[in-house]
Specification:
Length: 142
């Protein structure tokens, strides 16, 4: 794999895009691994009782799935030195068809002096943006 440097990237460069397919089984595995057993992530009945359309993916699962495109681009999860987002929508996960999280990322800023690149992510599900101001800062070699 070619190692990128800040001199090789420019604002607006495409980092990549991907579609992450989530199923109810993924939600169960995530709940078990994270300890987040909130029933809105497992029961349509409970989710609907609190005004949701049905079971939704965990926010942290959505956030983690989205940043994968950045990790694939830079080649090292340890190079991601900061990552944050605002949750702007839910990812409803249908019992039969699951859900597709569509993620794209572009270079939003380059700080050659610091050796970092800010990557701006867009994440949507069913045409609705689910993450807002999703940004990862990646440290690249000099």
């Amino acid at each position: 794999m070619t190692t990128l440097t800040t001199s090789q990237v420019s604002v607006g460069d495409a980092v990549g895009s991907t579609t992450v397919h989530l199923t109810r089984a993924d939600l169960v595995r995530y709940a078990d691994a994270s300890g987040d057993q909130n029933p809105i992530h497992q029961s349509d009945e409970v989710a609907r009782s609190v005004g949701l359309p049905g079971v939704i993916a965990h926010g942290m699962l959505t956030m983690g799935a989205a940043v994968r495109v950045v990790v694939d681009w830079c080649g090292d999860p340890g190079a991601v030195v900061d990552y944050g987002t605002r949750f702007t929508g839910q990812v409803p996960v249908d019992a039969e068809s699951g859900a597709d999280l569509e993620v794209s990322a572009v270079v939003g800023a380059v700080d050659a002096e610091a050796g970092t690149v800010r990557v701006d992510l867009t994440a949507t599900c069913g045409g609705t943006r689910v993450l807002g101001r999703a940004r990862a800062v990646v440290r690249l070699p000099a």
